[in-house]
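Fold this sequence, please.
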Amino acid sequence: MKQLLNLKLLILSASLFTLSATYAQTDDKGKIGFTYSLNGGTNVLQPALLGAASHTVTDASGIGLIYLRPINHWLELETGLTYSLYKIETTSAPIPQVTTSNSTLSLIDIPVGVRAGFWKYFFANGGLLLDLDLMSDSHVDSQSGIGLMLGVGVKYDFKFGGSLFANPYGKIHSLLPFGFDKYHERLLESGWKFGFTYKL
């Protein structure tokens, strides 16, 4: 248990170090913008336990802020903040009969990653997520922890300094949870993120 906590602190420290180390490498102040995310197929990964309830994500969407900081001519630091809302249907085991209930899960994630551009209009992005599960009425385990994200995208840069982008992505939340549940449930999320950024 102590080793797991130390690993989490090490990953968080490495993320913050990467953020501070890349901040001062260029005079370009970067880009800031906003995003909107649509669900492409989010699932709850849960261990196969006899008598456990099952969860189905019926809808998910998110809004967020994004900040891109150039490292060199093709690589950028990507961070920001995303607020996501998930609607979840929970189905009980048949003990004595099956019942269903609806709930919501609210999550904030803070990415610390990189975006690599190629062929002028395309990019790939990935990195770590700091997940913060807000108060919700969900029956799913808390998603607070360290997660991962990966994506590819297309962008168009306007001459006035603005950019539009579309970014299909995948995320796994709470890969390293802050709690110590033995059979921890995790959100496996896929979707489309659309955004606009403006050069500072």
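The CA atoms of residues 29 and 184 lie 40 Å apart. The domain at 2-199 is CATH 2.40.160.20 (Porin).
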